[in-house]
Amino acid sequence: MLNAAQLVASFRRHTLSPVEVMCAVLDRATRLDPRVNGLCGIDEEGALTAACEAEERWAKRSPCGPLDGVPVSVKDLVAVRGMPTRYGSLTARADLEHTDAPAVARLRQAGAILFGKTTTSEFGNKIVTDSPLTGVTRNPWDTRRSSGGSSGGSAVAVALGMGPLSLATDGGGSIRIPACWSGVVGFKPSFGLVPAGSASSFVALSSLGPIARCVEDAALMLGVMAGPASADPFAGVERGRDYRTGLADSIAGLRIAFSPQPTGVTVDPSIAACVRRAVLLLEALGARVEEVEVRPLAGYRESKMHSIQWAVSFARRVREMSAVQRTRLDPDVRELAQFGEQVSTAAFVDALAARHTLVQEMAGFFEEYDLLVTPVFHMGPPHVPGLPEALRMAPPLTSWCNQTGQPAVSVPCGLTDEGLPAGLQIISARGADAVVLRVARAYESARGPFPAPPPMADAVEHTAPVGCPS
């Protein structure tokens, strides 16, 4: 399975064609996706047409952008022209979108082939991917377990080679957690760096970002999407930056805070061991690592600031639905909305005030340190179906970054005692996305290649997609 940068290099050398690659992706989707349920829609005809057009451009040595001919999937919370946006919900209409979301439009302009939509929990509501519309999405390493969520479909698609890149969203860990549990790279940019369009929320928590097989691909995709959109009042950064520039620079001398058991959470010992080995590698690369207690986060879990804001946003969404629509919702969404309806004005204002304080205190923390590293999640993926009661709170190791708007990445850092991927989370100050990616790349290079999920012995028999040679 080649990554996006390798595909582009192959197109340039004419050793591979976009049509060959697109057919291979469609073939893998045909064979593997029935086992994991990561894709909820494929525009096969449109993908093959776009691949032929890309092939003609490469034949003339005139690619239209840095992703010309590269297959990219998109989480089904984000609009893609010519495909429906269903949000994992039986309440959503199946009308085809007439316009792309801003980030999708930029991917298309860069030549990406937007071939399919990936599964999500309903409206991205939780950290496992299941919904009334599309059912359960399973982990590519162990199909008895969850892929994570709410961007589980995107993580699964990338992990299994159903396209090297996927556009996902993260409102509390929804990129990083499934990337961690699926053994791929997931990057949540600084809030507002990638325009969210209608995928944003009024509480300003969700960011759009890449899920990829390697850090270089995440940086490539981020550079294509980043920059303000005229309709996005929160975006405030310039376009045109290539986040691959300086990606391979040394990390020697960077001040890295290491929090092995953040916010009082008990981390599974085998996950903790993987993360600690990763930190030792960072130290061997010349970073100045200090094990710390992150005091601004000491009371984060008990404050419920994220849970309150998240629930209120869902209460608002459900309030606008008809009585019939509400009966068709995932019970978890109804429960979340009911909690949001019970939040008093005073409690909501207190949550916003606590958020403001956390933003200030973490800004101070990142004046003392360049980066913070932690585990992505304190335990491995739960079995399907359902979401255990203990995991229904805001994910304590990831959601605070959404409160502060800071960039954070999940990079695979080993396999647990159960043979499942563990993730290293690297975080920095808002706007320091390039630094996060540079440290992630340095670790990834020192770690060496990460294994792919084990073969699926019971994958569906091969049938060539329409339009592709068998």
From TrEMBL:
Amidase domain sequence ranges: 21-437
Keywords annotated in UniProt: Hydrolase
Known EC number: 3.5.1.13
Superkingdom of origin organism: Bacteria
GO molecular function: aryl-acylamidase activity
Record family assignment: Belongs to the amidase family.
PANTHER family in the record: GLUTAMYL-TRNA(GLN) AMIDOTRANSFERASE SUBUNIT A, MITOCHONDRIAL, TRANSAMIDASE
Name of the molecule in the record: Acylamidase
Gene that this polypeptide is encoded by: aam_1
